[in-house]
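Bench notes, afternoon.
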Amino acid sequence: MTTLQKALIGVTLAAALGTGLYQARRASDLQEQVEALRRQSAPADGQSDSLRRQLEETDRQLSALHAQNEELRRDAADGGSVTTRPFLTTPEQQAALQKAIKRRLK
């Protein structure tokens, strides 16, 4: 085997080794980036789950309101008595309302 052939084999082996090391390093860097992106997306996943639950709850409430509205329309169309729901207020609102009523009665 000539010196030139030995040199070509050496260069080829060095190139193969360098390429393998480069690819291993690149794969390691990309794996770190993937892990960093997963860590960043974890809070967003939790937030999207929370928003999804809120949307489902809002959809349920909307469906109940549509059903109630339809029932009230049927009652009104049938000439039946329409019952009203009491006002939903907080204790603070009730106290303020009582004060306003007392002032008007005076």
